[in-house]
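Human: If only I could read backbone structure tokens as easily as an amino acid sequence. Take your time, and here it is.
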Amino acid sequence: MREYLLVLFCTAAVTYLLTGPVRKFAIAAGAMPPVRARDVHREPTPRLGGIAMFGGLCAGILVASQLDNLSKVFSQGTDIRALLSGAGIMWLLGVLDDKWGVDALVKLGGQMIAAGVMVWQGVTVITLPVPGVGAVAVSPTQGMVISVTMVVVMVNAVNFIDGLDGLAGGMVCIAAMAFFLYSYRLWYGYTITDAAPAVLFSVLLIGMCLGFLVHNVHPARIFMGDSGSMMLGLMLAVAAISITGRVDPDLITSETGSQTATVHALVPIYIPLLLPLTVIALPLADLLLAVVRRTWAGQSPFAADKRHLHHRLLQVGHSHSRAVLIMYFWAALIAFGTVAFSVTNTGRTVALTLAGLCLVGLVVLLTPRFRPRAPRAVQAFVPPRYRRRNPGRAVARVAEGDAPAAAASTEPMAELSAKDKELLGGLGPKGGSSAAGGRGHGSGRGR
């Protein structure tokens, strides 16, 4: 575990340190398109954040290759080389799209090429575990189709949710954490070495997302762009493919002692690709709804609009930060709920816990205008909208005729800076009377 933590820290640190220079480069290169009608940000923001993330990925892989235990992943298979090849192609395609724009069909073709390169290097589905049947072998053609389809679906699902500050990076980070827990349990708990690449990929994903989120939370200073979102989707797909079809159920049966316990332990992997799909359940649902919605309206499935799930949260009254946190909550609930169900011996406790959390999530979702007030002890550490108002600062009412004047003179002055107050004090009553006189003369002439 210490080696994984070291890789995570190095990946996050390099990504964080590179994001600042990449932001300046993106501004100088003109990778800062104007605000579109479907965007929710108000000012042009540089893209190309995927460059920093790719640098963090390379640094994490370099560190992992020098560690004793993790270096075995490099010598026992070709998953790392396949990941770098596919991620490099996807990253280059995204950089071109962030700077000059790439047609949707050309982008789709590039995604399929990146997936095909990884399949050619060995990252492909070999078998599909089926409940009651066992491992069912698939032909090379079938494995290629399944693998390429999974990569394309995940890449576009992550790309679709990249619409709010910190949304895509945070949701991929949550998905990677859930996948790390599951794959690490298979590797460490059941000594299945074939799960080791998925553990490393998950750690790299977590580090890349954490290092970039510092710059990408609302208000974002830089966007990851397609160069980042498509690369994250590809890495999530590679982590799923590298573990699907490579885990022998008989190995777990020898540890658990019964076929029933084995089936329960392999719930996410006995149903093909269940866990990878649950960790991106919300992005995948958004992708499917967008395709159906646009096709039904006679538009292209790749046509952009402002009707994604995060856009609807803003429309019903949620703030930007709250909409992102709501998406985080539901993504974590689905992903970690699936992992918890595969770990516990009974699903009743997990089901009751998930039901209670769902109720809490629904209450928050249906009360968009509710603003909780933080306790006074922590008000200095929370945003201003969550602080309690100080009744001592309220302006006391005087005579009925003087109340409007007192409110008008006291409250604005409280918001002014020291230089503004000094400037207004220098004007004095003379300036105020002359201004009033000027307005009076002007109004008289108008009549």
